[in-house]
Write a structure and sequence with these properties.
TIM Barrel, 12 strands, 31% helix, 17% strand, globular, binds S-adenosylmethionine, binds iron/sulfur cluster
């Protein structure tokens, strides 16, 4: 930004200049923030939550205004990509108010992308509005195209509603990427079909290896399907071509020659993706997690509420980023049946 000639260096530092960008101890610039806007959900996916999940008291949640202020502080510190997630972000009451107010950062150019990850159940209702606020791309989680299996995996979900959400999203002009968790003995026979279906509709597909987060009343070993196996099986049917496509995230992409579509693999257990990590996560109570796979966290709700000035918040964020770890080490094996972390994916938003 050009500064007026008579602006002194002192004023640049102390009067409204952009706060310092976020660089962690391993020289990684933090430019991507994922925000869990609620821990609640209208589904109970077997790998994510137990059926009788206990949610946070509503009083602990940040208000929409506080979420906006928190996100805006990160944008001021150089975050250029913001993903709303949950729980299910589209079940948070008033969520469009937040999307609407955050869209000002798209208009100003400070934010390059505002996006969300959703189970798609409410997408038919909100797709056009999201597009209107500048959301261009949405990730929809969908593990199967079989209505009975869908019900068994999500416990409470209806496949038809999600498919209608995807239709509405595409009709509104949203670019949709499908995320599917590979589950042993559940959808492993369907993955090749999911590739054909997603690519046939012009959607990228990313397959995710199940991660040991949160106690879910089921054995992780029963669910765990290594993506090395999925990939080997897909190679029998498709030609998977290595491509140079990186999003700065954990997915490794290939092009499927027969469909022309892109296929991603997220393998936190068999492949470590931490070297290029550019992201941090905040929960709906304002806790900042510097790594999805580690417990260390920083409370931002305190500094947020302590002052109308953003300075204490900036200081707390800076301090937390100095503690961003180099990486994580998830393990599921027969000796460690317990989750690697007690925290559920719905708390930090995946
Ligand atoms: N409710 C939204 C949804 O399902 O897309 C957003 C939140 S959900 C926690 C984000 C992603 O995490 C989903 O794609 C979901 O499949 C994935 N997920 C949840 N629990 C997981 C686990 N234990 N291992 C791997 N992926 C998981
Ligand atoms: Fe809800 Fe998403 Fe977790 Fe499924 S994966 S229970 S849709 S938060």
């Amino acid at each position: 930004m050009a500064l007026a000639d008579n602006t002194s260096a002192f004023e640049i530092d102390h009067a409204g200049a952009r706060p310092r960008p976020l660089i962690d101890p391993f020289a990684r610039a933090i430019t991507y923030l994922r925000v869990s806007v609620t821990d609640r959900c209208d589904f109970r996916c077997v790998y994510c939550m137990s059926e009788h999940m206990t949610f946070l008291p509503k009083a602990d949640l940040l208000s929409l205004e506080e979420l906006d202020r928190l996100c805006s502080a990160f944008v001021a510190k150089g975050v250029s990509k913001l993903r709303l997630t949950g729980g299910e972000p589209l079940v948070r009451r008033g969520i469009m108010t937040l999307v609407s107010s955050l869209s000002r950062h798209l208009e100003s150019g400070a934010l390059q992308e505002l996006t969300l990850t959703t189970n798609g159940s409410q997408l038919a209702k909100y797709a056009a509005e999201l597009k209107g606020y500048g959301v261009e791309r949405v990730n929809v989680s969908l593990d199967t195209l079989d209505p009975d299996k869908f019900r068994a995996i999500t416990r409470w979900g209806e496949l038809d509603k999600v498919l209608a959400g995807i239709d509405a999203g595409q009709a509104a002009g949203l670019k949709i990427k499908i995320n599917a968790v590979a589950l042993k003995g559940v959808n492993e026979d369907e993955i090749a079909g999911l590739v054909a279906w997603a690519h046939g509709r012009g959607m990228d597909l990313t397959i995710i290896e199940v991660m040991p987060l949160g106690d879910i009343e089921e054995s992780r070993l029963d669910q765990y399907l290594p993506l090395s196996l999925v990939r080997a099986r897909l190679s029998e049917r498709y030609t998977l071509e290595e491509i140079d496509y990186h999003t700065g995230g954990p997915a490794r992409y290939v092009r499927v020659r027969e469909t022309g579509g892109r296929l991603g693999f997220i393998t936190p257990l068999t492949h470590n993706f931490c070297e290029s990590c550019n992201r941090v996560r905040i929960t709906c109570t304002g806790t900042l997690f510097m790594c999805l796979g580690q417990e260390d966290a920083a409370d931002l709700r305190g500094p947020l509420r302590a002052s109308e000035s953003d300075e204490p918040l900036y200081a707390a964020i800076d301090d937390a980023i100095t503690r961003k770890p180099k990486g994580h080490d998830f393990v599921i094996d027969r000796r460690r049946q317990r989750p690697a972390l007690a925290r559920h994916m719905s708390v930090t938003g995946g």
